[in-house]
Amino acid sequence: MSFRLLMKEVISTGIFTGTSGHMCFSTSVPLLTAKMYEKCGRLVQWSIMNGGPGIPVLCTSVFQLMAGLPLTTDELDDVQYMPDVEASRTLSMVCYTL
Question: How many domains would you assign to the chain?
């Protein structure tokens, strides 16, 4: 099975919003109700555990905050691509206080 094709399908499910390399998780009650986030998470986990790719489309700042990695102000340039303006402002304020 091609893990690259699998990851393309995961990306096309609607759980992400934004442009490639600057995507964030979408807020969708129907996808949440259908447990699509959980299903896609398991597929990504399966891909990574078998040597396949992860999801290289996430916003770098969001990924670093999710993973607990340090974030510098130089890396905040991609926050401007977040589709949710309020979330973008909040993330910028949090990161500048770190």
Answer: 2
